Amino acid sequence: MSLTDEDYELLAEEIPSPNDPFIRQFVSGSEALQSKESALRFDSAFRASLSPIARRAAAIVSRVREHENQTVWSPTAASGEAQPDAEKNETVHPGMPFHLAKPRIETTDLWRIVRKLPKGAALHSHMDGLADFDYVVGLLLETPGMHVSADGPVSSPASLASTPVRFRFRKQESSEVSIWTSGYVPGTWRSLSKAASEFPDQGRAGFVRWLTGQCVLSRDEAVLNRHHGPGAIWRSFERCFQMADSILHYEPIFRAFLGKFMRNLRDDGVSWIEIRITYALDFYRKGSETPEQDYHYLYSVVDEELTRFKSDPANSSFWGLRFIWTSSRALPTRDLIQDMDNCITTKLAFPHLIAGYDVCGQEDRGRRLRDLLPEFFWFRKQCAQEGVEIPFFLHAGETIHSGPGTADANLYDALLLGTRRLGHAFSLHRHPLLVDMVKEKRVLVECCPVSNEVLRLSGPVATHPLPALLARGVPAALGNDCPGMLGQGGASTSHDFWHAVQGWGGLGLEGLGALAENSVRWAAFEDETAAQWSAGIREASLGDGVKAQRLKEWATEWERFCLWVVMEFGEKYGEHEQDSAV
User: Fold this and answer.
1) What are phi and psi of 420, to 5 degrees?
2) CA nearest 270: which of 321, 311, 312?
3) Relative to the CA of 554, which of 85, 122, 331, 481 has its CA 20 to 30 Å away?
4) 226 vs 97, 232, 233, 464, CA distance in Å?
5) Domain locations in the chain?
6) DSSP letter (8 states) at residue 406
7) Within 10 A of 332 (CB to CB), how many other CB atoms are there?
8) Hey, what's the torsion of the CAs at 203, 208, 212, 214, to 10 degrees?
9) End-to-end CA, the chain
10) Dihedral sign (CA 40, 45, 47, 48)
11) What pairs with residue 169 in β-bridges?
12) How far apart are CA 410 and CA 426, in angstroms?
């Protein structure tokens, strides 16, 4: 029975006013509870120490995000309705899949702001995944003496998608027929210039599109075929690496690749990078048909190119790079021991370039860390005997599975092995004890939100588990994983930062700043014992080492950036008096 107007008027007299003392007291209690919880956040100290300019910049960025949610991502975003894009058969909305959103992202003011942000250190990147493949494929075609070989004729759509193809320098051609025909003899070498021109679909231009597509996950794989699950896209991902390896591991191309990705990092606001490197002995000197028998020349090339790059005053903002030697978790024991021994030998020759050790590959399919314990303890003993410090920076928890016998258990073993950071740790939020352990031991989570979405661990970025960890005080930093292969393009880290600030409403510019500062605080700029590492993180900018100095340099760049945000966007986004008075 519906209330009459008269009945409602009588009842309404009994409804408390929002200004009644007990309502106001309830609201105060709720706000106090929220404040108490906010004090547990990973960035609470950073927020409390913000300068007036930084607070103004953060308020402006919040308005930019709100404005673009309503205008760029959906004119009716506030009501939860979505704006269809009839031409592309897409639904435009905040948090739409990265591959669909990317063209729009790069037209926004929030993108301009994130691109300018001083990002500190990129702590989770894989070497060949940093390539800009539009650039690299063009470079491959221009490099004298390059040839192509395949495991069989690449003469059908199915073989174009699945037949292993490799590129190498060769002094002479050994195939008289095109690899795109049924008469091709497997393993013979065809001039790359000829092969590109002979490509059956639009010749050289078609070849460039095909080869680039073999190195970069497609939109269909990233978005339309998500229902096939992580295992299927990992197989495509591994094929990208196989193709990229054969292109990049030739000295002239490798040197150009190094310079290109360092320029990209510099332009992206990244000052330091620690790169997971997983290279077999398949690096070729210029003009050589025989691969190197050890890693000395490869690391000499890196040393030379890094020195050359840093000697240019235009690159003064780039501090440098180190490698985390990374073995495939799929290797059998003998091959893994050999790779570990190569790591130690290379560390002795190039101590400044090797920062640590890791294993990689899809955790759900490869050997678990527990299976690798004998090898890990052998490695640790050998390092002690040789007098070298090679700490662990382990991938763990990059999985959607949980329970005994799954890759999720790698988190336990990584922490017990003393890892200084956790790669991805996507499943960490399921483990309250481990969350407390990570906080107590000050182990940083290296999070790569774009990678987690594209590789089908998470759905839209708003559903990512990292905000739950940040709210509980877990230290974290953002990485880019394999941006060249995953669709970000080149060595970009900005897409991951944009994804975070746009997708995680409570983060804001303050949170981005804290994540960037963390990346410097947890960077391995130099060799340190476990005690020195812990002290450096605890003391931060108050210490007296390299880390403290770079934290101070980052803080200076942060303030300059915040001033730029205020000057560039304050008037456009209606900076109010209360903002400037903060």
Assistant:
1) -85, -25
2) 321
3) 481
4) 11, 9, 8, 16
5) 112-130+237-565, 144-215
6) S
7) 8
8) 30
9) 53
10) positive
11) 146
12) 11
E strands, 127-251, in order: 146-150, 165-169, 190-191
With CA atoms as reference, report the closest residue to 477 among 435, 419, 516: 516
CA distance 127 to 4: 72
Query: Do 120 and 270 touch, CB atoms closer than 8 A?
Result: yes
The dihedrals phi and psi of 397, each to the nearest 5 degrees, come to: 75, 20
Residues found in the chain: 582
Out of 3.20.20.140, 3.90.1150.10, 2.60.40.2470, 3.40.50.300, select the CATH number for domain 112-130+237-565.
3.20.20.140
Cβ–Cβ under 8 Å, residues 170 and 145: yes
For every residue of 517-569, DSSP letters joined together read HHHHHT---S---HHHHHHHHHHGGGSSSHHHHHHHHHHHHHHHHHHHHHHHH
Per the CB < 8 A criterion, the answer to whether 470 and 427 are in contact is no
Dihedrals phi, psi of 67, to nearest 5 degrees: -65, -45
Rounded Cα distance, 179 and 189, in Å: 9
Q: How far is CA 142 from CA 119, 145, 253, 286, 502, in A?
A: 34, 9, 10, 14, 40
Residue by residue, pLDDT tens for the chain (582 residues) are 688 888 888 888 888 888 998 889 999 999 898 888 888 899 999 999 999 999 999 999 999 999 999 999 875 543 444 455 544 556 788 888 888 899 999 999 999 999 999 999 999 999 999 999 999 999 999 999 999 999 999 999 999 988 999 999 999 999 999 999 999 999 999 999 999 999 999 999 999 999 999 999 988 888 877 777 888 888 889 999 999 999 999 999 999 999 999 999 999 999 999 999 999 999 999 999 999 999 999 999 999 999 999 999 999 999 999 999 999 999 999 999 999 999 999 999 999 999 999 999 999 988 999 999 999 999 999 999 999 999 999 999 999 988 888 899 999 999 999 999 999 999 999 999 999 999 999 999 999 999 999 999 998 898 999 999 999 999 999 999 999 999 898 788 999 999 999 999 899 999 999 999 999 999 999 999 999 999 999 999 999 899 999 999 999 999 999 999 999 999 999 865 445 444
Question: φ and ψ at 95, to 5 degrees?
Answer: 85, 15
Q: For residue 353, what are its two tokens?
A: 């370039």
Distance CA 52, CA 579 (A): 9
Strands across the sheet with 476-478, in order? 394-396, 421-424, 444-447, 476-478
d(C-alpha 159, C-alpha 182), whole Å: 11
- Using CA atoms, how far apart are residues 191 and 178, in angstroms rounded to an integer? 9
Rounded to whole angstroms, how far apart are CA atoms 369 and 247? 31
Q: How far is CA 351 from the centre of its chain?
A: 25
Site of tokens 């590492």: 533
- CB 217, CB 486: distance < 8 Å: yes
| Distance between CA atoms of residues 132 and 486, nearest Å | 11
Tokens of 313: 């005053």
